[in-house]
Amino acid sequence: MNKARFVAMILTTALALSLTAAALAHQPFCEFADLTSDAPWHVPDPTISYAYFGNIYPAGDLDFFSFEASASQEILLSLSIPAIDDLAVFSPVMTLVGPGVTGEPSAQLPETLRSSTEEGSQTISLGDSPRYWFEPFGRRYYWNWEDYYWTAPQTAIYRVALWRPEEKIGRYSFVIGKREVFGGEADCFASYHEYWSPLEAGRNPYRDTLIIGDAHKHDHSKTIDLDPDGSPQVTLTLFPLKGGGYNLRLQTQNFIFTPQNVDGEPIPGEGHAHLYIDDVKIARLYGEWHHLESTPEGAETLTVALYANDHSAFTVRGIHIADSVDLADLPLAG
Questions:
Q1: Could you write out the DSSP letters of every residue in 18-47?
Q2: What is the CATH number of domain 3-196?
Q3: Residue 156, pLDDT score
Q4: Residue ranges of the domains in the chain?
């Protein structure tokens, strides 16, 4: 290979890498566990550019982010919407809450965001209409709302909430910060394509959060987060029966069933389990075996999750201790 050709290849490679770097300037993170007021995503550094791919789900959901800012520090807040074919542009409301915040709150501000005596709230204006944009390296289209630059009134912790007054569901990308530093979440890179498919009512988009109950409301039970070393584990096995239905076996480690202590004090490693069909709770289980007479037509997944005596959910690093079985993968009863 001659020298001129070698230099050309080096320059071409450097250009490609620089363009890729520009395309991946935001550090991507994904909402694998639903964000709530009690469990917001804590922005590590609001000066660094992060892109958080999230879901407003179920209807009425509020997603929360928190960050610490210094007095007079300028923070970039922005919102992009994955452009999904045949769907209207999703337009969440962005509300900023914190000490010294002033501005016009939304007339439909949820009770969760109503200001205390120490805090104010401001609805962030992101423009009247978004700009349609094609990102060439990910080869995806977005609707980009206008960037908003906000100046912190004092050194404090602030919260951003994303919500939708009309209780519609949809996907978004929340961007905070403008300083480009490489990084992000490997699992989010792998799941990136999912955010260009529409959310479906009744289909849980969260990998690490159970959605249960009527109208698919969240399970608001308290949690007990345990150390990974020696934490309880559960394995669910289903045995199809010739006459229909299933026998369920729950095999546990570092956990015992204590029906005699239900509603009592929580003790790590003891309690009961909840049984879910497609994220809807149908039973409380107090032992290794359980008979399930039938499942609804079209049911896809059975899940069991471990709970303490006081009905707090056992978690490890914020993730429910649970196991699921895909009904489509089960062999037919012989």
A1: HHHHHHT-SEEEE-SS---SSS-EE-S-TT
A2: 2.60.120.380
A3: 96
A4: 3-196, 214-329
